[in-house]
Amino acid sequence: MFYGPIAIARFLAETYDLVSDDDDAWLCAQMDSLVEIYEGMCKEILLIRRQPKHSQEEAWQDFKNGKLIKLMAYFSQTLRNNDTNWLVGKQVTWADLAISDFFAFLVDKYDSTLLFDCPAIIKHIESIRAIPDIAEYISSRTELTK
């Protein structure tokens, strides 16, 4: 039995061959590291959402202008360095799914202009959303309320 979303995501990634294009331990470690960053960012957003309504905007701005801007620069550079449109390796991985979904969520729910200066992240999100099964899922899902 698994507990926790990262353990479940890792299991699904292994099951659906989203871990690595080969058995390269270095690539797997890079993916795990990126997913740990993702997990930390999710915890930050959860803390913001748990704030009283009147404090959420200030908490969001503090996070955005502090940690998030640095992470956006890091992910932009990582995408440019890999030269494949994926964060690591030569094919889409679970790290790509997690990170692209996180940034898409922030754009959809918090700040539609967030990624204007991050074309590599925008292209990454578009590439993920263009994967046929993901595109089909996105077009058929219903909007969740906050």
From TrEMBL:
Q: What class of enzyme is it?
A: transferase
The EC number of this protein is 2.5.1.18
Name the Gene Ontology biological process terms.
glutathione metabolic process
- One GO MF term: glutathione transferase activity
Transmembrane intervals: none
Show the InterPro entries listed in the entry.
Glutathione-S-Trfase_C-like (IPR010987), Glutathione-S-Trfase_C_sf (IPR036282), GST_C (IPR004046), GST_superfamily (IPR050213)
Q: Which residues form a coiled coil?
A: none
Per its UniProt record, what Pfam families does this chain match? GST_C_3
- The answer on whether this UniProt entry bears the keyword Transferase reads yes
Q: Which SUPFAM superfamilies match?
A: GST C-terminal domain-like
Q: Which domain of life is it from?
A: Eukaryota
Q: Where is the GST C-terminal domain?
A: 24-146
Q: Which reaction does it catalyse?
A: RX + glutathione = an S-substituted glutathione + a halide anion + H(+)
Q: Which protein are we looking at?
A: glutathione transferase
Arranged from A to Z, the UniProt key words for this protein are: Transferase
